[in-house]
Amino acid sequence: MAQKRFKIITIFLFSLIFIILIFVFPKFPKPSQKPSLEEKKEIQPTQKIEEVKPTETTRIDISNWKTYRNEDFGFEIKYPPDYVFQQRTTAGSEIPIKFSGEFISQNDLNKKEEPRECEIPGIFIEIYNREDFGINENQTLEEFIMKQCQHEAGSAGLKINEVCEKLKIGDYEWIKAEWPDMCPEENYYLEKNNLVYQFRSMTYEIEPILSTFKIFNIPLAKEKTQLIGGNILYKVSCNPRDLTCRFYSSFDGGKNWNLIKEQYKGRIAYDYDKKNPQIVYFADSGFNLMAGGECGFYKSTDGGKTFKDLTNKFPKSNGIRCFNVIHLDPNNSNIIYVYAEEYRYGSSVSFWKSVDGGNTWIEYVPDLSICDYCEGSCAASDNCPQADCDKDLCYLEVAEKTKDLSICDKIQNEYYKKSCYGLKK
User: Fold this and answer.
1) Which domain holds residue 145?
2) What CATH number did the domain enclosing 322 receive?
3) Strand (E) or helix (H) holding 360
4) pLDDT of res. 129
5) DSSP helix/strand/coil, 189
6) Model confidence band, residue 320 (pLDDT cutoffs 50, 70, 90)
7) How far from each other are the two terminal CA atoms of the chain, in whole angstroms?
8) How far is it, in rounded angstroms, from Cα 66 to Cα 372?
9) Residues sharing a CB contact under 8 Å with residue 106, sequence separation 6 or more, in sequence order
């Protein structure tokens, strides 16, 4: 009798446990799984987000906001009065960037401690040529981004709308993407005039600033012609659409032009002998090494009809050496000063001097005169005889080599200025 009662109690307890499991287990979250076949149908690479969601940014008072306008890349944008804008270097990027900048609050800029890895302050803007960004000729930006969204969503077991969406912000339709398995960063993409505009941030709200974004027309190419003497002319002409620069000379006052050097996806810096303009030194800046850009240093004694490669005359670099500024002594063209960048696991700068027409080179401790030949970014117009050159960065490097912290007062870029004052004597 006792055994029968024990069996009944045992059966009752198992039944009770089974009922509890049925009601309790569905309430626990299921582990992430790879999408089923039906789910995969929802995230095909060619899928588009049909719905464009409007955003509410019209209630924000922007009457006291500052305006940043960029004539080279044809856009304008407003930002809060407590923010500052600073242009960032594009050197060393694996994907060629035509323009890079950052909006950051003055408060964050003044902080001394380094931010955590996934809490980088600021709103970053990058501008790319659509081809360099990876978009095929017959492909739209939306199709390109959606393909990546499909891959990221599928890997994380998410639907595509949980990763990417289209938003109407201000005058434009943007594609917003938040990539899983990375630091939480919002990315906004727009394509206009064969350029891809990307805004991104880990910590700031981007949409209020994006609501003020405007694009205006820019010329396809700009150039500067430099009168060298008599009827001899030199010019660098760059196309901002494909980042290609060409260096020319003319011996008949500009009626006919002779191509000296073409730099694919790069920049060209040059200087010439003021007494004998047939002597000219020029160099590739190597803006995009991975896409065919070069880093060479050349000399011509016949106005560019022929030229000699002096690149190997420099001491061997541990990385790749490219050239931003060339300056000849006005009284002796055999004395040459060069401001260069070295690329190896990042970038650093170096200053070189030759007293024998470029046959031998030594590193020297520069003064600020070399920085005076930096004329800012020539990324689109290249209406200057030097390559992309950041004068504030040049000041910082000279201060570091000379240990002269008074140079820091000349720096306008707040980030570089703070770095300069932090140099140890």
Assistant:
1) 66-215
2) 2.130.10.10
3) none
4) 84
5) strand
6) confident
7) 96
8) 28
9) 82, 83, 84
